[in-house]
Design a protein that fits this description.
Udp-n-acetylmuramoylalanyl-d-glutamate--2,6- Diaminopimelate Ligase, Chain: A, domain 1; globular; alpha/beta; 4 helices; five-stranded mixed β-sheet; 109 residues; 5 strands
């Protein structure tokens, strides 16, 4: 699915990606070393970690998006880093479980 097609209740895009970026799956974790070991290119990272290191790890692993849960907000420098790396950033009002289930439903899983 295209990143601009990702929509579900409680989800807000706070930093769009440019172009036809695809989301092919998702990975849920707050431990960034775990993300580096297991996230697959094209996955959306679902986390509560709302800082620049999250964007660095997302870029390193080829994540298409970062979805911050529980309404966490990203700082302006985090959003700037995401824009530079062309990684979309979303904020979800739901928990990590709820957000993961919503993403899976959007992806037809």
């Amino acid at each position: 699915m295209k990143i601009n097609e990702l929509k579900f209740p409680g989800l807000e895009c706070v930093q769009p990606a440019s172009g036809d970026v695809e989301i092919t799956g998702g990975y849920t974790s707050d431990l960034l070393s775990d993300v580096m070991a297991h996230l697959k290119e094209g996955d959306a990272l679902i986390t509560i970690q709302a800082h620049k290191n999250t964007i660095a790890v997302a870029s390193l692993t080829g994540a298409s998006a970062v979805i911050l849960c529980h309404g966490r907000t990203a700082s302006s420098d985090t959003l700037a880093a995401a824009a530079k790396e062309n990684i979309a950033v979303f904020v979800s009002s739901g928990s990590q479980y709820e957000t993961t289930c919503a993403l899976a439903k959007c992806l037809g899983a």
